[in-house]
Amino acid sequence: MRTSAVEWMRQIYTNGFKGKMISIPADFDSLEKAARERMSEKGFAYVAGGAGAEQTMMNNRRALDEVRILPRMLKDVSQRDLSIKLFDQQLPAPILLAPIGVLDLAIKKGDLHLARAASEFGLPMIFSNQASMPMETCANEMGDSPRWFQLYWSKSDKLVQSFLQRAENCGCSALVVTLDTTMLGWRPRDLNLGYLPFLYAKGLGQYLSDPVFQKLVEERMEHEDLPPSGGVTLQALVSLIRLSSKYPGSSFWQKFKSKKGLYGVRTFTDTYVRPSLNWEDIKRLKEYTKLPIILKGILHPDDALRAIDVGVDGIIVSNHGGRQVDGSIAAFEALPNVAEAIKGQLPILMDSGIRSGADIFKALAMGADAACIGRPYVYALALGGEAGVKALLQHFLSELELTMGLSGCRSIQEINSEMIKNK
Ligand SMILES: Cc1cc2nc3c(=O)[nH]c(=O)nc-3n(C[C@H](O)[C@H](O)[C@H](O)COP(=O)(O)O)c2cc1C
């Protein structure tokens, strides 16, 4: 349950008066700085980094910064209602938690911390295909709170079907298909450190727990010898021990000797994404699932129109937080054109660069029905786990509520393009 903005600020100021400061900074720059000090160098680089020279990340921010809110006065804003209806579900606010993989880089059992925090507020958590923990483990902690599943379309359709079946079984109410990652982007921060978490079996929670994936690994072990490693280093040995301990089932020594962990990672790297993904695949997805389908990564209005043609249920305007194509259009810049093309026929969500409640207000004014928070919650996890994310969500909700009220809006429905002025 959220605390009202006024009450939340009262608590913060009263605590401050007693000498107790907030542990989750109320602005993004301080939050990121504090998280950087807490996280490992490689973990922080993986989360904070973007593609190439990180121009897209900068564009995401610039686009949001360049748009101005134009507040209206004397509208009696004593009641402020943040709730919305999305895909037939009543939500307490137009905020979702974007799918983010490898949350273990922020804190051990990061997915679980996030699931608990999200369910405290009834805000949807989108389980990442690259989560560190299986979706069922998180779902078990969430009661009736909404959860969605995000899919990276693997080269194995059987694995895709298995993931979707599991998502339905554990109560996910929507499926997000990420379109912008048919290959991993060029990410200099990770390349310079030679670090990809998946090679250490991090972020493989959905795979290692999946019966179809396990079968793929067994088959591989029967039919394929691993290529010679070319000289075993201490680092490689440590990695192999870690991999073996991460793999489920049988004894550690058995897994170590059979190199099961290595086979698992190899199976993952070979099947992870499908560069051939196309609109025909999306059409047949309806045969695989009953869940509403939401396409994530739409930036061009023509792709948005195509999404309507193939009969999906929603889209997320996103450039993956600038992690895929450097020099790309900002998601927020793409939003009004996409909204104009869609003309209200599908719900539109947006992410990439959302750093505050005021940013969410701008996204809603520009045509989004809801927005997803990404990197900020990873930093909150690193700083305070479940409690950290709860504080962060409370910050976002409070700022959105205040921005709304101080701009003359009593409900989310009253936020529209007239509330915005371009520079
Ligand atoms: C560390 C990290 C991991 C991510 N993993 C996924 C993922 O597994 N699936 C996905 O669809 N998007 C993933 N994303 C993209 C987010 O869902 C979202 O689009 C992005 O974080 C928005 O940008 P922002 O965090 O800068 O606001 C990831 C982003 C980050 C930063």
Word description of this protein:
The chain is an alpha/beta fold and 423 residues long. The chain has two domains: 5-184 and 273-422, TIM Barrel (Alpha-Beta Barrel), CATH 3.20.20; 197-271, no CATH class. The chain has helices at 5-17, 28-38, 41-48, 55-66, 110-121, 135-140, 157-169, 188-193, 205-208, 211-223, 234-246, 252-258, 260-271, 279-288, 301-309, 331-342, 357-365, 375-406, and strands at residues 67-69, 84-86, 89-91, 95-97, 125-127, 147-151, 175-178, 293-298, 314-317, 348-350, 370-373, 420-422. It has an eight-stranded parallel beta sheet with strand order 4-11-10-9-8-7-6-5. It has a two-stranded antiparallel ribbon with strand order 1-12. Helix 16 (331-342) links the parallel strand 9 and strand 10. Helix 11 packs across helix 13 and helix 17 (357-365) crosses helix 18. The longest helix has 32 residues, at 375-406. It is globular, with a radius of gyration of 22 Å. The two termini are 37 Å apart. 48% of the residues are buried. The mean pLDDT is 95. Residues 46-47, 98-101, 128-130, 150, 178, 296, 318, 320-321, 323, 351-354, 374-375 line the site of flavin mononucleotide.
